[in-house]
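ENTRY TYPE: protein
CONTENTS: sequence, structure tokens:
***
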Amino acid sequence: MQDFEYMMARSLDETVSLLAQEPDGVQLLSGGTDLLVQLREGRRIARLVVDIKSIPELNELTCDPVAGLRLGAAVPCRRICQHPVVTAMYPGLIDAFALIGGVQIQGRASVGGNLCNASPAADAIPALIVHHATCCVLGVAGQREIPVEQFCVAPGQTALRRGELLVSLHIPPPGSGFGAHYLRFIPRNEMDIAVTGAAASVMLDPAGGAILSARVALGAVAPTPLFVAKAGDYLKDKAATKEAIAESARIARAAARPITDMRGTAAQRRHLAGVLTRRALEKAIERARV
């Protein structure tokens, strides 16, 4: 493990000031389940590690049918998955958040950290994309919002500018006729990295059951989590038939740009992108009809 200084930040202003002074030498610690491993392996370098998990704004968790869900960047996954209102309103998010490590990891790991780690195989990000999530970030120039599908720009790299940090995530209320689902393929039953992941959401017309809108996102098949807008757009104003779902899944499969590595081949991942998209859409439609 490399040597570094450690300090605990007490406010957003203090954190922004530290980042502005030396952005390349400061690493932010929320849960630390990714950062500490990366520091040990030399994949990240830090002169100073700033612990931000005690900052009040980063620990806010509010959820109601009007305002939607707001998650502070340091809120641990376990706290979210045990929140009865969140689990009732957003089962498609819980599908993904509950997969981020085992129980011990979830007590530390945060959804904000999972997003900022910017892994192409991250479980939380495709689910956030199909739920229309937005990122609230803060820096010396002030506050701005970024759609979550634009947040990851390369493996391990985000759209955060020098001196900025992620403060919170906002997910709009689901509304009547909304359904979403996330699933992944892994070699083992738990605590593994997705070979391929897929998330889907739909909004159904309560009168006729037609699909008013849909979103599809994939994980582990491109350099970043992949928002496949064409797959969702294809379903707009169509009946939720097996044929329509199959075509949307084919579009998602065609959009995949996977690689071959120790966890799977490009051909396997491309095939799984289609299979998992179909299954995610079917479950999202089932939930939307309840």
